[in-house]
Amino acid sequence: MRRNIAFLLGTVTGACLTVLVAGPQGTNLVAAAKAAARSDTYNQLNLFGSVFERIKTSYVEKPDDSKLMEGAINGMISALDPHSRYMNDKGWSDMQETTHGEFGGLGIEVTMEDGLVKVVTPIDETPAAKAGMLSGDVITQIDDEQIQGMSLEQAVARMKGPANSKIRLKVMRKGSAAPIDVAIVREIIRVRPVRFKADGGDIGYIRITRFNEQTTDGLKKAIASISKEIPPEKLAGYVVDLRNNPGGLLDQAVSVSSAFMNRGEVVSTRGRTSEETQRFTARGGDITKGKPLVVLINGGSASASEIVAGALRDHKRATLIGTRTFGKGSVQTIIPLGAGNGALALTTARYFTPSGRSIQAQGIAPDIEVLQDVPDELKGRTDLKGEASMRGHLAAEGTEQAGSQAWVPPNEKDDKALNAAFNLLRGGSVNATAVTAAKRAVPN
Hints:
The chain is of the alpha+beta class. It folds into 3 domains: 4-63; 103-190, Pdz3 Domain (Roll); 194-331 and 346-426, Alpha-Beta Complex (2-enoyl-CoA Hydratase, Chain A, domain 1), CATH 3.90.226. It contains 10 helices and 19 strands. Residues 1-26 and 432-444 have low confidence and may be disordered. Keywords: Hydrolase, Protease, Serine protease. One of its GO terms (molecular function) is serine-type peptidase activity.
C-alpha cells in the first residue's frame, strides 16, 4: 500500500509540473525558480566565506586555515549519512592499506555514531577480539583523550600504532552501569579473510571474516583443499560463515557469490542517475559443482556479506541460518581528490538483491532463525540495533527492521546456529522451536 501511495503522489506532482510548464508563463516561472535556487546557494556560500574570514581575523588564537577547511568539509559530509566521509591524505592511505589486508593496530571494524566511535565487529584472532571487545561497544576515550570532536579518521589514526605498543580504551557497553577500561597491546594485523576446515569428514566449513583483495583467492584455495581432503561422494556440502563480517569490497562480494553460482544476477545498484544504476552478474561458474550450501548470518553481517547472502538465497542456492543481518545497503563510491588532497567516500546508490529487494535498513532475514544461548553476564549486550538505528541513515524502501543478535559462542559445541547447519546438511532436523521463517530444503 505504501508503494501505491508513493506512486500516486508522484503522478499528481508530475501532472502539476506539466500544467505549470505548459501554461503561458510556464517557461519563465521555471527559469525564475532555478535562478532563485542558485541565488540561495550563492547566499549560503557567501555566508560561509564571511564566517571563515571572521574566524581568521577574530578568533582568540591564529587558526590553521587547512584545519578549518578540513573541518568544514567533514561537517558538510557528516550532514549526509553515517557512511559518507572525507579522508585526508593519510586517511586515504590508511584505507588503501586496510583493503590490501595488512595494517598495524587493534583489529576492530568501527563506525562513527553520535560523535563517538562504535564497534561494528572485532576481527577474529586480533588483539581487540582477545581483549574481549564486542560488537556494539562504544569507545569514548583513547589513552585518556576524549573522542568527542574527532573525525572517524582521526580516531582510527590514534588507535593505530607500532606493534607491541600499548593503548587504553574507555568503553561504554550496553548493560554495564559504568564505563569499562580495556588495555590492548597493538600487533601487526594480517587479516586472513578466509579460514576453513573439514568437519567430521563430510562437511566443508569456510569462515569469511571480511571482503578484501585476498578474499576470493582464499575462498578458492579453501574449496580446493576441502575437495582434496573429502572425496566428492562423501562431501555432504559446505557451511559458509559470514557472521560478524562487516563487509568490504563490492567486486569481492560479486566474485565470492559467483563461486557458488553458474549464472544470474548477484546484486544491482540504483542511484539518482542512470550512471549509478548497474547490474552485476555471476561469472566463472560454480566451483563447488552444485554441492548443498548453508550460509550463517547474524546482526554483525553487513554490506558485502548481505550481498552474498541475498544473492545465494534469491537464486535458491543456499539456506540461510542465524539472525537478521545489519541492513547496510548503501553504496559508497571512492572519489580520489588529487595528489595530497585525500579522497571522498560518497554514498551514491542503494544495493538490491536479485529479486529486487532493498537491503538498506531492512537487512536479510534468515530462512531458519536460530538464537544463541547468551551467557548471563553478556545478556542485553550482544544485540545490534542495525542500520535502522543509526542517526541520519538512508530511509528504507519499505518497513525498517531492527538489528539482531550478534553473539557467536567461542566454543563450537555451544554454537547452535553452526550445529543446526551441520544437522541440516547431514539430513537431520533443526530444532522446531528455532524456526521462524519458512523452512526450505537445501538445494542440490
